[in-house]
Amino acid sequence: QIVLEADLTIQTIMEKLQSYKSRVALNFEGIQYRVGDFQVRVGKVAPSYSETMRGIIMEVEYLPISSVLTAKQILEDFVDAWKDALSKKSLPGQFLHIEPNFGEYGLSDHYTSQHTAVQYATVMAQLIATVQSAQVRT
């Protein structure tokens, strides 16, 4: 379980995200790894009413740097290496790299728990859209 602490700007962030209005409940279950200077969290995502997996979420954090802009290239290289490794496997689905524009939410370059909240909300919005489109097709 992850608990995030926020100041008053969270109201602006939540209003901009609009994700709190969705009526879909998702369960996240996973493991955290430390690989050198990287912290990687990997988990499966399923609707709360079903065991059918709807996605795999991976969060990558480069621990030595708290500047979003400075860490950007290092994280992009990590993601590219991961995509390359996945491309050699014949796995179903697709790998999406979702990176919100933190400036839209009034967040600074110094990474905080509010950046994490925006990332999680953005990923959840993508997963909710996927779950809802699957419900429409069935």
From TrEMBL:
For biological process, the GO terms are: regulation of transcription by RNA polymerase II
Species annotation: Opuntia streptacantha (Prickly pear cactus)
Task: List where in the cell it is found.
Answer: Nucleus
Q: Subunit composition?
A: Component of the Mediator complex.
Give the record's family classification: Belongs to the Mediator complex subunit 20 family.
Q: What does this protein do?
A: Component of the Mediator complex, a coactivator involved in the regulated transcription of nearly all RNA polymerase II-dependent genes. Mediator functions as a bridge to convey information from gene-specific regulatory proteins to the basal RNA polymerase II transcription machinery. Mediator is recruited to promoters by direct interactions with regulatory proteins and serves as a scaffold for the assembly of a functional preinitiation complex with RNA polymerase II and the general transcription factors.
Which superkingdom does the taxonomy of this entry point to? Eukaryota
User: What are the protein's UniProt keywords?
Assistant: Activator, Nucleus, Transcription, Transcription regulation
Q: What is this protein called?
A: Mediator of RNA polymerase II transcription subunit 20
Q: Which GO terms describe its molecular function?
A: transcription coactivator activity
Instruction: Name a GO CC annotation attached to this entry.
Output: mediator complex
